[in-house]
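[audit] Reproducing an earlier prediction to check determinism. Same input, same settings, fresh worker. If the tokens differ from the archived copy the diff job will pick it up downstream; this log only records the rerun itself.
[audit] input (113 residues):
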Amino acid sequence: MISNSVTISILNFSYLAFGCLSLAMFSHFRDAFKRSPSQIQSRILYWSGWIILGASYYVGVSYQGLAYGSIMFTGIISLAALLVILTLSYRARHLPHLMTASGILGALLMFIV
């Protein structure tokens, strides 16, 4: 049985991952930081996003099994993606701060379990 803290932790890490993936794009990075990313920054953000997303999937599957963990993960990443889209639409400058808070909260919740 998965606890609520693990579910919220997966949501936080998925938000962080989608934030990294969105900041890897030129226009979203420019909206958040008012400058363009370097090629290295873009690649680091891109691969960090995929690694964090994969780690979130692994945690969900390890706690729930392959079938239910995959279904739960799909729902969680849908919500995380929606939250990143809303953040970029209305408060793009706050995305890096919210990503930092999300990563810290996700790590704290993982250790509470």
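[audit] rerun output stored. Observation attached for the diff report: The mean pLDDT is 93.
[audit] end
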